[in-house]
Amino acid sequence: MGMWASVDAMGDFPAEKRIFGAVLLFSWTVYLWETFLAQRQRRIYKTTTRVPAELEQIMDSDTFEKSRLYQLDKSTFSFWSGLYSVVESTLILLFGGIPYLWRLSGRVCDSAGFGPEYEIIHSLVFLLLATLYSALTGLPWSMYNTFVIEEKHGFNHQTLEFFMKDTLKKFVVTQCILLPVSSLLLYIIKIGGDYFFIYAWLFTLVVSLVLVTIYADYIAPLFDKFTPLPEGKLKQEIEVMAKSIDFPLTKVYVVEGSKRSSHSNAYFYGFFKNKRIVLFDTLLEEYSVLNKDNQEEPGLEPRNDGEGDNEEIRTKVKNKKQGCKNEEVLAVLGHELGHWKLGHTIKNIIISQINSFLCFFLFAVLIGQEVLFAAFGFYDSQPTLIGLLIIFQFVFSPYNEVLSFCLTVLSRRFEFQADAFAKKLGMAKDLYSALIKLNKDNLGFPVSDWLFSTWHYSHPPLLERLQALKDTKQD
Fold first, then answer.
1. In the chain, count of helices (H) and strands (E)?
2. Alpha-carbon separation of residue 384 from 120, 129, 190, 203, 293 (angstroms)
3. What local confidence, expressed as pLDDT, does residue 13 receive?
4. Count of alpha carbons within 13 Å of 98, Cβ hemisphere only?
5. Pure H helices in 114-245
6. Contact criterion met (CB below 8 Å) for 344 and 356
7. Are strands 266-269 and 249-255 parallel, antiparallel or unpaired?
8. What is the pTM of this model?
9. pLDDT-derived band at 298, boundaries 50, 70, 90
10. Mean pLDDT score of the chain, rounded to an integer?
11. CB 335 within 8 A of CB 428
């Protein structure tokens, strides 16, 4: 009875109060749900202290314990950072932080000679101040994660000076993209008339395609060093594999990810007939700087093939800590190229753009509702940027949660399909061993709570992927 009475009582509040209360209630509901899931997984970390029988053949007890402790530390950090985030956002909403920042932005504009008619400039100042606040409040958390957790578990390779320069560079580059794009989007919405949502959607589509196209060539090199993969057996085999599946490969790069972290990755990018592959140096056993300490001679160059090595070098390679052999790298790329061949990339783009169009259409329907602005403290004005913030971040939040879960489920399905594609290429055995190595190198914990993994994991748990490959890994 008490619950229904409280629900009925909410009906007595003005509409803007009900909207505001619903937003706060949903944000805390999501936080409590995420905390519940995290505690279930944390219990797994705490109680699973021995390697399960089904994992004994693929994981030693030392690595298992290291990964368990690493994930425990990450779980603790996630709990406190999540609590801070939800409390901070609640206080900002309760004490009118958004309208306050808008008024402050207005005063900055007034002092520079821009009156109320310059709403776009006002909006850009608001964005600059909001992102600056977010960067400053997030900096301690980022530093703790990098220099305490990642450092403790052997992943961090950054100095404090490098970290601060990198953070500043990221902020500047973000503003160079965010502010011009936002100003054009606001202008399109202002002059677009009744069908502005179509023009806004098309604009964001073009921007996203341009950013994807230029990111690896012009943006990523501002932060990391990209070098062409040297001529040799690995490059030749990559080119042969790409040609066999009609992948229009133009270049293969190695990115110096090791100067930041020992985590590894690989990806491809580009449109139409201009595809490039990027390999992290930490993925490559022959190029990982973490393995250079195992070389007897400081000047020893990485091998281009597996022949001509003496027994001592072979033993050292066998005991290397980081990265995959060439055959395993090819298997990982076979998986990645499977995403392209099976149309996963195009499907994700289509889903993203359908969602974007739907959101802009609903924004067009809701932007005229003054009660939404009043709910967040904007009684006398309805700025377009604030409308975008309220509708996309708060009003759409339930929809965004559902969509995120559906995309997570779809992603896991795509991962199984890409594994199956690599298997068809005859790479099941090498992909099997590569997944085990990557899990070890990144200290992934192979045991997960079923509900936590269902909600969060965009990739299937390791054991499930290995089982799917195991039956025919000798093919």
1. 18, 4
2. 9, 17, 8, 16, 57
3. 76
4. 21
5. 119-144, 151-152, 160-191, 196-214, 233-244
6. no
7. unpaired
8. 0.85
9. very low
10. 87
11. no
* pLDDT above 70 for 453: yes
Catalytic, out of 239, 336, 401, 464:
336
Residues with Cβ < 8 Å from 387, sequence gap 6 or more? 363, 366, 367, 372, 373
N residues, the chain? 475
Three-state SS for 421? helix
Report the pLDDT value the prediction gives residue 266, as an integer from 0 to 100. Answer: 84
Give the Cα separation of 465 and 442 in Å (integer): 17
336 catalytic per annotation:
yes
Provide CB contacts within 8 A for 201, sequence distance 6+.
353, 356, 357, 360
Collect contacts of 360-368 with beta carbons under 8 A, ≥24 apart.
360/197, 360/198, 360/200, 360/201, 360/204, 361/197, 362/391, 362/396, 363/197, 363/387, 363/388, 363/391, 363/392, 364/196, 364/197, 366/391, 366/395, 367/391
Helix ranges (DSSP H) in 245-322 = 311-318
Q: Which two tokens stand for residue 387?
A: 């409308």
pLDDT for 317: 34
Contact status, residue 10 vs residue 413, Cβ threshold 8 Å: no
Selecting among 419, 430, 441, 449, the annotated active-site residue is 419
Q: Which long-range contacts (CB under 8 A, 24 or more apart) does 392-395 make?
A: 392/359, 392/363, 394/23, 395/23, 395/366
Two tokens, residue 175: 């503003």
Quick: pLDDT tens for 238-268.
Answer: 999 999 999 998 888 898 888 888 888 888 8
pLDDT at position 312: 36
- Confidence bin at 270 (pLDDT 50/70/90): confident
Q: List binding-site positions.
A: 335, 339, 415
| Strand (E) or helix (H) holding 252 | strand 249-255
Q: Is 311 a catalytic residue?
A: no
* Annotated binding-site ranges for Zn(2+): 335, 339, 415
